[in-house]
Amino acid sequence: MRFRFVPAVVLCVCAAALAACGEEPSSPAPASSAAPASTAAPAAGAAPASSAASDAGPDAAGGAAGTIAEDKALCRELNTAAKDLRTGITEAQQDGGGVKAADAKRTFTAFTRTVTEAVASAPDSAVVAAAAAIADELGAAAAAADPIGTAADSDFAKLGNDLTAACKTAGVEIMF
Q1: Half-sphere exposure of 169 (CA within 13 A, CB side)
Q2: Are 175 and 126 in contact (CB under 8 A)?
Q3: CA 117 to CA 15: how far, in whole Å?
Q4: N or C end of the chain: which has fewer CB within 10 A?
Q5: Number of other CB atoms surrounding residue 90 within 10 Å
Q6: Any idea what the Cα angle at residue 168 is, between residues 165 and 117, rounded to 5°?
Q7: Mean pLDDT, to the nearest integer, of 39-43?
Q8: E strand residue ranges, 24-166
Q9: Is the pLDDT reported for residue 163 higher than 90?
């Protein structure tokens, strides 16, 4: 029974994250382009962002523009990885709705590897932090005996919402 229920829960979590993508644009749309840059720093972590902002000096605006451009590229890459993750799990679903542990491990591991490689050279930002957290969560799920159950019991939905919000701040809509 759990194997039929868990994939449904994971798919619902993905659907909820997608629904959140469609609802939020009405709020940030009126904001100026300077607002996303100022809201990205607190999302990455209060202490490191505060000290980085105070140490950056007058060149902070140029660095922020570079980070936003890099975040946009990273978000596009993460969107592709998320699509591959959804496709992998959907294709692995059996007639009864379950997903074999080996198939889930393979899909989760591929996603984790893609995200880990993508964030390895990226500068610190809210997008990088959110992506790394999701990669860590799915990496742990891939290592578990029941990867789908572990992912369903984790904070995956919250982490997906965090990544979606960070990418929106960078100006990219993703479907995570």
Answers
A1: 26
A2: no
A3: 26
A4: N
A5: 13
A6: 80
A7: 38
A8: none
A9: yes
pLDDT at 108: 96
Q: Which residue has the tokens 């960070």?
A: 166
Rounded to whole angstroms, what are the CA distances from 149 to 49, 73, 129?
35, 31, 24
| Identity of the amino acid at 11 | L
Task: State the amino acid at position 44 in one-letter form.
Answer: A
Report how far residue 62's alpha carbon sits from residue 122's, in angstroms, rounded to the nearest whole number.
16
Confidence check: pLDDT of 81 > 60: yes
Decide: 14 and 86 in contact? Cβ < 8 Å.
yes
The more confident residue out of 127 and 26 is 127
Q: Following CA atoms 126, 131, 133, 137 in sequence, which dihedral angle do they give, to the nearest 10 degrees?
A: 160
pLDDT, residue 176, reads 80
Torsion angle defined by CA atoms of residues 86, 92, 98 and 101, in that order, rounded to the nearest 10 degrees: -100
Q: What angle do CA 154, 156, 158 make, to 5 degrees?
A: 110
